[in-house]
Design a protein that fits this description.
The chain is an alpha/beta fold and 192 residues long. It has one domain: NagB/RpiA/CoA transferase-like (Rossmann fold, 3-Layer(aba) Sandwich), CATH 3.40.50. 26% of the residues lie in helices and 24% in strands. It has helices spanning 5-17, 21-36, 39-43, 60-68, 138-143; strands at 46-48, 72-79, 83-88, 92-94, 100-102, 108-110, 117-121, 124-125, 131-132, 151-155, 176-178, 183-185. Strands 6-3-2-1-7-10-11-12 form an eight-stranded mixed beta sheet. Helix 2 (21-36) packs parallel to helix 4. It is globular. The N and C termini lie far apart (38 Å).
């Protein structure tokens, strides 16, 4: 049986949307707490986060901790040709997909190599740390520009896990996927 990404995406979004607002908020707090306890977070100076939409893991606690700890935060900004920038800034606007983004004209555009830790949203994920996104390929194009020293982690709710995501050659596996229940590690890309 051939597994299609579009079918996995529909099922995973349904599963994610089955959570109540309270469940989503509590599970998001648990995920953020796990990240905050890692040495990688403690040692990171610049992180790339995202603003949650459509039932994604909420990173509010992580954003608050980053500000308190004096860390620089960048956010993804989708641009033409399915490309993405990492932008740090205070002036926000609604992006092309209705997602809040910092304005690149008044913010600082960071090189992907300037990022120490990137937290990516997942629509679905598998135990090998492949993620399924919304299908635009923005993250995969961006992540392919990174060196091996950048930590790339995904966050998702445990109910978004699937047995296997059919990976394409351009799909970038993550180093870790953090859920409210556990942390999945990519054994093919050990962190050094």
């Amino acid at each position: 049986m051939v597994v299609r990404k579009s079918e996995l995406r529909v099922e995973a979004i349904k599963a994610r949307e089955s959570l109540t607002a309270e469940e989503r908020a509590e599970k998001s707090r648990q995920i953020c707490s796990k990240i905050l306890q890692t040495a990688e977070y403690q040692n990171a100076q610049t992180l790339m986060l995202y603003k949650s939409v459509r039932g994604e893991v909420q990173l509010t606690d992580l954003e608050t901790a980053c500000r308190k700890d004096g860390k620089k935060i960048a956010y993804p900004v989708c641009i033409a040709n399915r490309a993405m920038l990492a932008v740090s800034g205070e002036n926000w606007k609604k992006g092309s997909f209705g997602i809040p983004e910092p304005d690149p004209e008044s913010g600082e555009i960071l090189s992907p190599k300037d990022l120490d830790l990137i937290i990516c949203p997942c629509v679905a994920f598998d135990p090998q740390c492949y993620r399924l996104g919304m299908g635009g390929g923005y993250y995969d194009r961006f992540l392919s520009k990174l060196g091996c020293e950048v930590k790339i982690w995904g966050v998702a709710f445990e109910l978004q896990q699937v047995d296997w995501i059919p990976a394409e050659p351009w799909d970038v596996p993550l180093r870790r996927i953090i859920t409210e229940d556990k942390i999945y590690y990519n054994s093919a890309q050990p962190e050094g």
